[in-house]
Amino acid sequence: MRKPNYSQDRAQRERDKAAKAQAKAQKKLDQKAAEENAAGSGRPEGEPADAEDAPR
């Protein structure tokens, strides 16, 4: 019977932990971007950014 390779198990746990942390950070960035887009600059959607400055 072979001995279990604990170093491989540990390495896999480390990779899983790093992947989870990266996913959490990415989710946080995506959520922040979505909130900024939702808040926007107060213009109605579909209206161009320079519509307020356009001559009438």
TrEMBL record:
Region (Disordered): 1-56
Superkingdom field: Bacteria
Annotated Basic and acidic residues bias: 10-19
Biased composition (Acidic residues): 47-56
Stated name of the protein: Uncharacterized protein
Organism: Muricoccus roseus
